[in-house]
């Protein structure tokens, strides 16, 4: 199964009286989403199922991304992707294996996205270090392949495919 981990695009700073949860994307973030979409189209990256945090910046990232991809995947929104640990992200990956989904995308937040990437690549620390030496960029996309649950999948069994950063496109 292919897993796409997406960190939301760049967001504005919270204005006084605004919750962190409600921070919108800024101009840079909207540009990052366009760059990410173009890279996904060129590479043929198409998720079947999307889990998205309900935080505004994640919702906006997904809302801008999907039309540019020309896709209509199943979308599940989750409040726990905002404040939960990376274990919640891993739980969603495990659950998706059970549903025999070919590919999933999680649109979420740091540090959980980066912690999830580290857990998925824990048996290949060189790949993790090379891919994320500078941290997980906003609107960054990490692609890994995971063996099926039936094959005894565990987080560290993932194989690094690529990291796409808007800065690189």
From TrEMBL:
SMART domains: PGAM. Pfam families: His_Phos_1. This is Histidine phosphatase family protein.
